[in-house]
Design brief:
- The complex is a heterodimer of chains A (about 110) and B (about 120).
- Chain A is built from no helices and eleven strands.
- Chain A has strands at about 5, 10-15, 20-25, 35-40, 45-50, 55, 60-65, 70-75, 85-90, 95-100, 105-109.
- In chain A, strand 9 (about 85-90) and strand 10 (about 95-100) form a beta hairpin.
- Chain B is mostly beta strands.
- Chain B has strands at about 5, 10, 20-25, 35-40, 45-50, 60, 70-75, 80-85, 95-100, 110, 115-120.
- In chain B, a hairpin with a 7-residue loop joins strand 5 (about 45-50) and strand 6 (about 60).
- Classes of the chains: A mainly beta (about 110), B mainly beta (about 120).
- The interface between A and B is medium-sized, with 25 and 21 residues.
Chain lengths: ~110, ~120
């Protein structure tokens, strides 16, 4: 199983500041990496797939980068609605496999 | 717009059974792979099972549920199901229905439901 490790577990950021979230894969997943935003009681929301492609309707302040084993989600200027849990997920092509990271909570500083 | 609405969760005793359903709307349900993903309390997300699109109905399961859970779909009713048998305490989780983003056995998930809570306890 490909283990996904996210850091930090909690990130305290002031509104308007930049947030940088990291995700590391236990082995190379190329660019088969997605990011999700999850708020309590709501459906998870796809932000990024293919490591850097924004999903439909996602604001430009969200950007993804990386390949292989190291990935980053950047929120350029945090808005109040961005305080949430964020998960990364790999979807390896072969053998086909899906695993999620443990999550990063972005909280108000 | 795309909507996925899960139902069927509840409290069940160890060894019991439960059938989850997911009502899909706003897209051509038969054209998409669909998956179940769960989140145990206080833990991260775990993929559970997927079913392929069209008539092939290929399925796959996480090792932790293989032989106990069965995924199925009813294209006439635009619904996805998860039959869960021989339930264990460790199956306690919020179960999400999700649409696969790329029509392959491993994928990202572009739409999710809000989830249904399954609690396995005596």
């Amino acid at each position: 199983e490909i283990v996904m490790t996210q850091s930090p577990a909690t990130l305290s950021v002031s509104p308007g500041e930049r947030a940088t979230l990291s995700c590391r894969a236990g082995q190379s997943v190329s660019t088969n990496l997605a990011w999700y935003q999850h708020k309590p009681g709501q459906a998870p929301r796809l932000l990024i797939y293919g490591a850097s492609t924004r999903a439909t309707g996602i604001p430009a302040r969200f950007s993804g980068s990386g390949s292989g084993t190291e990935f980053t989600l950047t929120i350029s200027s945090l808005q109040s609605e961005d305080f949430a849990l964020y998960y990364c997920q790999q979807y390896n092509n072969w053998p086909p496999e899906v695993t999620f990271g443990g999550g990063t909570k972005v909280e108000i500083k | 717009q795309v909507q996925l609405v899960e139902s069927g969760g509840g409290l069940v005793k160890p060894g019991g059974s439960l059938r989850l359903s997911c009502a899909a709307s706003g897209f051509s349900f038969s054209d998409y792979y669909m998956s179940w993903i769960r989140q145990p309390p206080g833990k991260g997300l775990e993929w559970v099972s997927y079913i392929s699109a069209g008539s092939s109905r290929y399925t796959n399961y996480a090792d932790s549920v293989k032989g106990r859970f069965t995924i199925s779909r009813d294209t006439a009713k635009n619904s996805l199901h998860l039959q869960m048998n021989s339930l264990r305490a460790e199956d306690t989780a919020i179960y999400y229905c999700a649409r696969d983003g790329r029509g392959y056995s491993s994928s990202w998930y572009d739409y999710w439901g809000q989830g249904t809570l399954v609690t396995v306890s005596s």
